[in-house]
Design brief:
CATH topology of the largest domain in chain A: D-Maltodextrin-Binding Protein, domain 2
Keywords (chains A, B): Activator, Amino-acid biosynthesis, Cytoplasm, DNA-binding, Methionine biosynthesis, Repressor, Transcription, Transcription regulation
Shape of chain A: elongated
Family (chains A, B): Belongs to the LysR transcriptional regulatory family.
Order of helices and strands of chain A: HHHEEHEHEHEEEEHEHEHEEH
CATH architecture of the largest domain in chain A: 3-Layer(aba) Sandwich
Protein name (chains A, B): HTH-type transcriptional regulator MetR
Oligomer: homodimer
Number of strands of chain A: 12
CATH class of the largest domain in chain A: Alpha Beta
Strand content of chain A: 15-25%
Organism (chains A, B): Thiohalocapsa marina
GO cellular component, one term (chains A, B): cytoplasm
DNA sequence: GATATGGATGAATACAGCTCATGGATAGCT
DNA sequence: AGCTATCCATGAGCTGTATTCATCCATATC
């Protein structure tokens, strides 16, 4: 009977965000009275209180919290749909919302984005790196349109495709004793300082695929945000790091770095790009995947 | 500038569904004129045609198709939110929307649902078995609240938990030569008729984990929809099937069936239930997971 | 050509939602 | 305690938007 309207979602969200009806009303370009009326009507029609009036403060009830979560989920999708429609209005434009879930993915992405932007001047590219529900969740929730990740998920209405195979190697500086070694064994890192990106150990390949199986931990573990600084540190002998071989080779002209194989077999990795199956026909998305595949080398 | 309203989504969807403005108008309890005005205004404000008028038929444009996909995605979520709020209004009721992705899951589910319904008289249970984007996608899209599946997905805002470990066995009838065998080798099925549920071979464990690794295919492969009929067929000697051991044992009193281990090691499987992390606190959902865990046996 | 069907349009109208004006409650301050 | 500022509630009245009504136009069908 009651139709939950967009305005209702907007109200719930604004009240939560600004803390009071008065403040929310201002943001929504309404009078406080209008909001009060609207809220009352909504609650009447639903038959649930969405807020409890504690003196002069509004505290959301359980139902209010629920409706808020719905609003936070759906409103962004509505605004994005509007934006997308406006892009249709301006000819075939688009926004490619890319999510990335691993640091080497970012370096790879940078290389692909440049030619993509050149080929698709009318498409904007947006990159997001933080997801409440993980990259896969962001794809499903339409927060992003394309995911770059080392962990694909098959058969679910998503399409994943490998775009890059690479070898994860140990990077050492010019003074380092391992410099000339053909490969490194886990034990040889027991007395080293290991520099990594600041993410959980169970998401770092050097741990999961190399150190932990051998039961080894490095002497010290230092997290660093950016690749550049990380490699500067390595070059100056402050520690060693694990990175893709191609990434190390790119820095080789600038910094004196050596890549050493991890174990006798080496640690190999893949990067994938995933899109929603429903988007598989969208030209500017498709094009990115194909461009990525060409960059496989 | 233009606010995309719920009514707009409803219009787009109704027009698609009923094929004409006139028919859609009737369904929406509006006059044809009202719809025509509304459509015109929407298109004006968006600056895009949503339909091309071909003589007297409306064909959606690309933008129209897009908006339709948005509508089909968001409208169900809105209506479900309304339903959920109405449930809040009636005290702590709820609807538990369960999705299942495997046939043995269904048999297991039946066993758990009965005590659950008894313990939560105010909660309705809904079971869905078909998902456009797979079970995981349905969870993310809020089509279901709980997924029963053999394939969990960790770290993405979803919580999976194993609820049942079981052994997948070969079921044979009372006349069958394998009846007394301690286990069966893949080659021994080369001259058999294999009865399975009607799903793709790469989702059938007996193929992926037993036959295909050995390069064997059964003489005949017969798909059957229901477990009961399947086991009737097996009991009457028309073929063999692969099912969970516990399921076979349940039918043992009624039908003369024998379970034979697949290979020397046996094929072991797990069933998991998954929920959205955001729902982990919802009492009636939590209760189901816990009830499921107790039924592990 | 006659008829049926479906969409468009302009003017009239009805009603939902807004504003205005005001009142009550409470927290914070002096 | 009193004073004041802040916030929400309420009713009456207004306004604008969405709807209807009446009508017209286009085209497919027979």
């Amino acid at each position: 009977m009651t139709q939950l309207e967009r305005s209702h979602l907007a109200i719930v969200r604004a009240v939560d965000q600004y803390g009071s009806l008065t403040a929310a009303a201002e943001r929504l370009n309404l009078t406080q009275s209008a909001l009060s009326h609207a809220v009352r009507k909504l609650e009447d029609q639903l038959g649930v209180a969405l807020w409890t009036r504690e003196s002069r403060r509004l505290r959301p009830t359980q139902a209010g919290e629920y409706l808020l979560s719905v609003a936070n989920r759906l409103l962004p999708q509505l605004t994005h749909a509007e934006a997308r429609l406006r892009q249709f209005a301006q000819g075939e434009r688009g926004t490619l919302r890319i999510g990335i879930e691993c640091h080497p993915c970012y370096a790879w992405l940078l290389k692909v984005v440049a030619p993509y932007l050149a080929a698709w001047p009318d498409v904007d590219v947006d990159v997001k790196q933080e997801f409440q529900f993980g990259g896969i969740g962001a794809l499903f929730a339409h927060e992003i349109d394309l995911l770059v990740t080392p962990d694909p998920l098959y058969e679910t209405g998503l399409r994943f495709e490998p775009v890059l195979d690479y070898e994860q190697v140990l990077v050492v500086g010019p003074q380092h004793p391992l410099r000339a070694a053909p490969f490194v064994q886990p034990e040889q890192l027991a007395r080293e300082t290991l520099i990594t990106y600041p993410i959980a150990i169970d998401r770092l390949d050097i741990y999961t695929q190399f150190l932990l199986p051998a039961g080894i931990r490095p002497k010290r573990h230092k997290p660093i945000e950016t690749t550049d600084i990380m490699l500067q540190m390595v070059a100056s002998g402050r520690g060693v790091a694990a990175l893709p071989r191609w990434l190390v080779e790119e820095y080789a002209p600038k910094l004196e770095l050596t890549a050493v194989r991890l174990g006798t077999q080496g640690v190999t990795k893949q990067i994938f790009v995933g899109i929603r199956a429903a988007d598989a026909q969208t030209a500017y998305l498709r094009a990115f995947v194909e461009l990525g595949r060409e960059h496989r080398n």
